Amino acid sequence: MSAPVAVVREHDSAWHALVRLTETGLRHLVVLDDTDGLVGVLDDRLVLSRWPLDGLGTRRQTVGELVRPIRSGPGGPLRVRADDPVVAAAALMLRCQVDGLPVVDDAGAVIGIVTGSDLVRAMVQAAVQQGERPVTG
Q: E strand or H helix at 21, and its extent?
């Protein structure tokens, strides 16, 4: 898990999200509503995929419009809890074809994000703890 997370609001423009991604150097932004409720995760590829279609459209389209149709499950936005096993996060990411999941506490507040990079890091750490030597190049 990575923390703290970079946040945008669902009413922010896709352009604002792109600027935020550039400023932070991150690949994922957690999207919240005005009451700090979780809406989902916005990744850089989704924002950048809109750019060639309509560069000015990124100033008109909201983050919420980008995130809501593809980042929600039957129980609301996709998410994991801090005490969920790593394999559960990995399975959800594979099943839903996402590269980032918000991590929430018992009250549902976002406390971090788990990404594909975090999963690879955990896998390497587990392998090293079991005595495997990492590949070096």
A: helix 14-24
